[in-house]
Amino acid sequence: MPQRPPARASLPETVLLAATVFLPTAAQGAILRRPRMVRLAAGCDANRRAHRTLAHLRRRHGEGPVSVLVPGRRVLLLLSPQDARHMFTATPATREKAGGLHHFPPDGALIGPTESRPEQRAFNEAVLDRDASAHRLFPALTPRIPEEAQALLTLVGSSGRPLHWEDFSAAFRRITRRIVLGDAARDDHRVTQLLDRLRADADWLTLRKPKERVRDAFLARVRAYADSAEPDSLAALVATAPCPESAEPLGQIPHWLFAYDAVSIAAYSALALLASHPEHAARVRTALDDADPAQPATADALSLLRACILESLRLWPIPPAIHRDTTAETTWHNGTTTPADTTVVFYRSFFHRDPQHLAHADHFEPDAWLDGRNDDNWALAPLSHGPAMLPGQDLVLYTAATLLAALLRDHKALLLLPRRPLAPPLPLPHTIDHTSLRFALTPK
Ligand code: HEM
C-alpha cells in the first residue's frame, strides 16, 4: 500500500508557528530560564498565542500530526493524545537537547550515546528509587527541608519585606545541594554558579563552544563531593547502583542538580495557586493541623500538596514541550507515516490546556490527580509519561510538597503580586512569570 505523508503546514502557518511557538519557547531558555524573556513572554501570555496557533492547525488539518518545514530537520507536531501515546511508548531524546547538553560533563541520561541509554536509565532508576513507594533518603531529608524552610521564614520575617523569588530560589538551591551532594555543599554557591554558566551556554545548542575550563572546574567540585560522599545524599548512592563506567555514572549528577530548578519553579507557582484558592489552602492547613508535631506533615497534607505541584506543572509545564527523534519509520493514528529521524514535538502547553481532552483545562483542579480523573490521559505529561516517565518523580514531588508543608504549617501565604488572584472569574494565564510573584507570609 502506498505510504501517506502527514498533512503539511503551509508557508503562512510555518511563519505563524515560528513566531508564536518555536521562537518564544526557545527565547525563554529550555535549560536555564532567562528571567527577562520569561517576563516578556508572560506579559503577552505567549503560551496562549502558541495554543491558538496549534488549535488553528488542528481545525484546519484535523487531529493527525502536521509536518513543518524547518531547515535541515523533519519536524512533526502532534495534535492528538493517541499520537502522544505512540510517541511516549517509543524513542529517545532529540538532537537539540543533545547539542545543548554536550556542554555538560561527561554524558547525562538525556544525551548519552543511544547504546548506553538503557544502562543510564537503569542507573537513574536505581539511584532515584523509581519503583519504591518512598525514596530511601526520605527519612534523612525529612528534617533538612523544614530546616531550610525555617531559615527562609526567619529571613523574610527579619527583613520585613514580602517573600521574593530570589529568596525562595536560594533556599531551594541549598536544599538541592544538600540532597544531591550532601550537607557539606549547602553553601557552595560556586558549584551552582559554574553549572548555571554551562546551562546558559547549553541553551545556545551547538552555536556556542563548550567552556572547557568552567566544565573542568565544575566537574572537579562534583568529583570531590562524590569521592567523600555523605551517606544521606544522592552522590553516595552513585557508588551503590550498578552502572558500567561507559555509562558515566558521575555524569548524571549535573542533570539532577539542574533539574531541581524546575521543581522550585513548580513549587513557587503552586504557592501562588494555593494563595489564590483559599478553599484548597484551608484543606492543606486542616491536614497539617492534624499532624504529629514531630512530623512535618500528614500523608493527607503531603498528597494534596503533591497534587498541587502536579497541577502547577500541568498549568505551566517546564519546559513547555517534550521532543523525541524517531528511530524507525512510524505510522500515526490517522494512517500517515513518517521516516526514521523525524523530530516529534509534544507541545505540553497546548495539550495540558486543551478543553477537547480535559474538562478542567483552565482551572486549578488538584483533586483530579487524586480521584483518577487524570489517569490514563495521554494529553497530560507534567513529568513526562509512559516508560520514559521521569524516574525521580517521587523525590521531586516529595521535596516540593515537604517544603510547602513546612512553609504553610504556621503561616498563611497571601499573594501580593500579581495583584489579582490566579483564580476565576479571570481565566488562568497560560504563561506565568514566577520571578515576579510576591507573597506576604503571615503567622496563622
Ligand atoms: C519539576 C521538575 C522536573 C520536571 C518537570 C522534569 C521533567 C522531565 C522530562 C519532561 C524529562 C524527559 C522525559 C521524556 O523524554 O519523555 C525528564 C527526564 C529525566 N529527568 Fe526530569 N524533571 C524534573 C526534575 C528532575 C529531577 C529533580 C531529577 C533528578 C533528581 C530528574 C531526573 C531525570 C532523569 C534522570 C531523566 C532522564 C530519563 C530517561 O533517560 O529516560 N528530573 N525529566
UniProtKB/TrEMBL annotation:
It comes from the Bacteria. InterPro entries: Cyt_P450, Cyt_P450_sf, Cytochrome_P450_monoxygenase. One of its GO terms (molecular function) is monooxygenase activity. Belongs to the cytochrome P450 family. This is Cytochrome P450. It comes from Streptomyces chattanoogensis.
